[in-house]
Structure formats: structure tokens, C-alpha cells
Amino acid sequence: MKEKYLDPTQTAGRDFVMRQIPGSVVMLNLLRFREIADYSATPELAPESPISGARAYQLYMAHTRPFLEESGGEVIFMGKGGDFLIGPTDESWHSVLLVRQQSVASFLAFAQNTAYLKGMGHRTAALEDSRLLPMVEDELGA
Fold it and tell me: Domains in the chain, please, with CATH?
């Protein structure tokens, strides 16, 4: 069974901060949803009836967006994924999300906001697996 990735490790978090990215950063999120959301870790957030992982992620985004925007972030793209055209044939992603944050500092402030963190259980319930790649805009050929 393949390893699942839902949260950054301490090492990855430290390395991200140590990159000292100047200016804005765009986060590429690859998302694979559970068929049925698993609220066992946060039963207080669970809806009355079972819902899909995709629906739980919608609840997460509805909760998250105001905090993201307040911190200077913005969703610049969200769309359906699928199988790779170039990439592993045994790997596919249900959704792709691009989020721009003004700076690493504003991203960290957002990610540590206690009001935002109260809704993280929707994300945990929703996701079977994920990837998060911080990207910096660059001139081609530079």
C-alpha cells in the first residue's frame, strides 16, 4: 500500500521556511477524496448523515476562504483532476487547487490561525491523500 500524505512533516515545514521565498508563493494542491468522509477524529464537525469526501472538502473550503482572504491569500484555480497525461499510470487526483499567498509569513499566519484550525477536521475527514507543492513564479529560461 502506498504511503498517504495529509499534513506536512516538521522537516518539510522547516525546509519551506528556510527557503526564504521572497514575495508571493503559489500552492499547488493535488487532492484525492475519500468515498465517504471520515469524521472519527472530529465528531463535533460531522454532519447528521454521512457525506462524501468531496462534500466535506466543500465544507472545509467554505470555512477556510474567509480566513485565507483575510490573510491576503486567494484561490486562483480549483478544478477537477483525473489521470496524468505524463506521470504514474496508477495515480490520479480528484481535484486540483491553486492558492496564492502574499508571502510565506502570511501563509504561516493563516495556517496557525486558531479560528481557521477549528474547521480543519473537514479537510481531514475529506482527504484520502494529498500533495502540496509551494511554487515561486519564475521567468522561463532565466
Answer: 22-135 (3.30.70.100)
